[in-house]
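Same chain as my last thread, 374 residues:
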Amino acid sequence: MGPAPFAAMMLAELGADVIKVDRPSAEALGPSPETNPLNRGRPSVMVDLKSPRGVQAVLRLVETADVFIEGFRPGVAERLGLGPDVLLSRRPRLVYGRMTGWGQEGPLAHTAGHDLTYLSVTGVLHAIGPSDAPAIPLNVVGDFGGGALYLVVGVLAALYDARESGQGQVVDAAIVDGVAHLATSIHGLLGAGLWRDEREHNLLDGGVPYYATYETSDGRHLAVAPLEPRFYADFERLLAPPERLPDRDDPKKWPALRTAIAARIKELTQQEWVDVFDGTDACVVPVVGLAEAAHHPHLAARGTLTDNGRGPVAAPAPRFSRTPTEPGTPARWPGEDTRAALERWGLEDVDGLLACGAVVQAEARENRAEEESA
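reply #2:
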């Protein structure tokens, strides 16, 4: 529901011509597409994959495609007649991207799961949060970091190879694999005896008082991260504590150091501290909410987030010097573009497919808007 659409959105923003295949069901009609920006940048065609003619329509699209992405449990695409063996026989240079949580094989491959469960078995969830319980780091670490981005990297690498070799292949992007790979440096530290397998006992998990968050007098927070000694010197000078801070290099004094920093930061508001540290190398910034992030001066200057009338929306990333990216068209209603997209991709019997119900043309956006306003 998240990783595969995000990967397709990102590929569309990078310049790919993408078609989204939706199912003809009440679930697919769902709420307004504006509520799911992951579907932006590509038209939607509604295809009945239980219909042989519907499956044939997708196979004909694949014959001119470079990449096919699916996010089913293992074996589902095969049962639909859209598995990699079938598709690669029709298009030998096709890159077949498979997005799952557990991967295509293994004891859990056929079981349900979500971001939280995938993070759990990799050890990463165990490592995040306060000492008394693991924190839930939204679903950006698993679904999107370890999932969607690894699928995009794999697809692009396989696509490059296909253009050199003329042969396609399957990209098995499993969230558990991606998350474990993201933690490569932490595993290295653990193996070297430089990381304790306990929360809040390490350099980057809140264990040290100079890499942590602190509450300000107005109930907001600052992120404090002056790891390097020269940055810490700036931090201590600008913090201006009433007494010299305890030695940061002595772990036994960390509780006292944390208490001293917390007491001093609690004396001023978040904005007052922002003014104190602004433009310095003390590595102190405000913890801002999602709704206000677009207005942070740095993000506003870069246009990192824009407001689409319903809230902040992220601009495409990364950025390129010669081929700038664009957010693309807004998310579409399922099936809104069935006829136009299929015809543009070269299918000649769209009328016949519509007549037999193998594909469905949904109402246009304008008609839906009129119904909603009425």
